[in-house]
Amino acid sequence: MVGVELTYKEELEKRVSWQLDQATLKEIMIPSFNHTCSTLLDVELVMRLVKRFVGLDEGVRSSAALIKVAKLMDSYLAEVAMDSNLKLEEFIQLAGALPAHARAIDDGLYRAVDTYLKAHIKVTKQERKLLCRLIDCRKLSPEACLHASQNERLPVRAVVQVLFTEQNKISRQLDWSGPMSMARSPNSNRHDAPGRCQSKREVSVQHMEIKRLKEDVVRLQNQITTLQNQLEKVVEKKKGFFRWKKFILISGSTSVTDVGKRDFEEVGFGRHTPLTKGKNSHRWRKSLS
């Protein structure tokens, strides 16, 4: 829309934002014709559309429409993340433009973050932490958690958090599927109709499922312990490095003359050798003769 007045442009963006939940990924992948934008796609335009959509009244914008827009933005983020000219601030702003409750599952957002890390290999450790803060580990599916636990591009602390969250999920499943959860109270048999007895096959399947979940818990605990040990080793190495550096600085501050003077005093030369010329020194030389 080159040469269009600003008022008409804003009115058109406003109307598009009202129907953003009905748009497709292909429709919002608009090329950038602005010379100030360094990316291939017009990220600034999509950002304005999302902000206008979020700012709509709840009567106009339903929760179902918000979920659709969240899925659309996750797909758009995964596409635009491959652009090497996309800045980290733009990615974070676009990912955080929607409220947290708009995403029931963060698998799409995790895929977009992983794509950004693949395309931008020069991202620093601190920037990786900022990207991982966008993801809620509690909203990741088991498949996404498994991928994240083996993802070398993520920081170690983020991987530990994913494993810890998955361990809590499995522990809750064990609590819910335990034998006590299916036990009936003594008074319930008097009023409720007797339930169907489970067959041996069903009982064996449940036991196998519980056994598998317990093995998963043990495996996750071992992985968490290994990662924690690695973190402790890294911290100890850093502490040892700074301790040696401090020792070198302190020892290096001692002057050479002080060291020489101390050495001479220890061997006894400084206490007996006369330092002034005069009668005392002359007598001392005669006594030696």
Number of continuous helical runs:
14
Global Rg? 35 Å
Structural class: mainly alpha
- Specify the overall morphology: flat
The biggest beta sheet reads: none
The stretches of 5 or more residues where confidence is low (pLDDT under 50) are 183-195, 253-289
- The share of residues in helices is 55-70%
How far apart, in Å, are the first and last alpha carbons?
111 Å
Beta-strand portion reads under 5%
SSE pattern: HHHHHHHHHHHHHH
Mean pLDDT: 77
- Strand tally is 0
Organism: Chenopodium quinoa
Pfam families: NPH3
Family: Belongs to the NPH3 family.
Keywords: Coiled coil, Ubl conjugation pathway
Tell me what you see in this structure.
The chain is mainly alpha-helical. Among the domains are: about 15-140; about 155-180 and about 205-255, no CATH class. About 65% of the residues lie in helices and about 0% in strands. The protein has 14 helices and no strands. It has helices spanning about 5-20, 25-30, 45-55, 65-80, 90-95, 105-120, 125-130, 140-150, 155-175, 190, 200-250, 255-265, 270, 280-289. The radius of gyration is 35 Å and the shape is flat.
